[in-house]
Amino acid sequence: MKPPFSITNNMLNSILEITQKVTRLELGAERNLHLRKENRIRSIHSSLAIENNSLSLRQVADVINGKRVLGKPQEIREVQNAYEAYEAVFKMDPYAVKDFLSAHALMMKDLIREYGSFRSGDVGIYDAAGNVVHIGARPQFVPNLVEELFHWAKTDDTPELIKSCVVHFEIEMIHPFGDGNGRMGRLWQNLILSKWQSVFEWIPIETIVYAYQQKYYDVLETSDKENDSTGFIEFMLEVILETLNSFDEKSTNNKANDILNDKVLDKLNDNEREFFGCIYDYLIENGEIGNSKAVALSGRITGTVRRYLVKLVELGVLKAGGANRNRAYALDIDTPKAAQT
User: Fold this and answer.
1) For the whole model, what pTM was predicted?
2) Which one of 3, 229, 263, 308 has the lowest number of neighbouring Cβ atoms within 10 Å?
3) Residue 253: inside a domain, yes or no?
4) CA-CA distance, 193 to 174, in Å (whole number)?
5) Both 212 and 275 in a single domain?
6) What range defines the domain where residue 46 resides?
C-alpha cells in the first residue's frame, strides 16, 4: 500500500536542482579516502548529536581512530556502533528486512536489550515537557508494516529522492525498535539514495539535519498529525540540496587556492577559480578534458568555458592538444602551488 503523500512543484524543483548538483559531483573524480572518512565522521557525529550524544566532533573522530577519549561509556559505544553500521550498510539491500535488522544490530549492540530485532512492547515519543507526541505502531503489527513499506519502496516507480524521504518518515512513524529509530531512519535514507547515486555514501546529510534539528522535529510532528509526509519530504529535499551546495562550494572554491600559486591566483577572478576547482579532479583522474565535459562539470555556457580554458593555458596551468572538436586540455602543473608564471 502506498504511504500517504503528494508530489508538489516544490519537490520537483528541488529534484531538478539536486540532480544537476549530483551530476557535477559524480562527474568529478572519486574523492580520496581521507575525505570520505572525514565526512563519515561528520555524519555520525551529527546523527548521534540529534539523539543527545554530547561528544564533540573531535571526540567522535578520536573514538573512531582508536584514541582514548574521556566521556560516558554509553556515548563512546554509540560512536563505535554507528561507525560499524555506516561502514557496513552501503553493501546492504535497502529493501531487505533482514538487512534492516542487521544494521540495527550493529547500531545498537549492547545499548539496548532488543538490538537487531523488532520491539516486543509499546513505545511512545515524548516532548521536553513530558507530553506524548507520537505513539508507535503496536508491536504485533510492526513486522508486517515494515515489510509492506519495503515492498512498496522496492516496486513503486516514485523517484528515489522522494522515496527515500518517505521511507525515512515511515520508519519514524512505525518506530519499529525499542531505541535507535531516528538513527536508522536517517541511515536508511542514505542507503536508498546511495543506490541511486553513489555520491550519497559520503555526503553528510545529517549535518544539515542537525543544524535544523528543531524544524526536523516540528515537521515530523506536523506530518504525523496530518497523516501525510508531504511536508517532511519537502523539508528533507531542501536539506539534501543545502548539503550538496555547501559541500560543492567548499570543495571547488578551496581547490584553486590549494593548488595554484599566488601569482596565478592574482590573475584569476572568483568565477575562474571556481571553474578550475570544478574540473581539477576530473583532470587528475582522466588526464584530459574536452570543452563539452568542462561545460557539464562547471554548469557554464560553452563560450565562457572556452574563454576560461584559454586563459588557464596562457597562465601555464593547462596545456592544449588537438584541434577543433578534438581539442582537449591537460594539466601543465605537477604539484600544489605550481604553475610559476
Assistant:
1) 0.73
2) 263
3) no
4) 21
5) no
6) 9-247
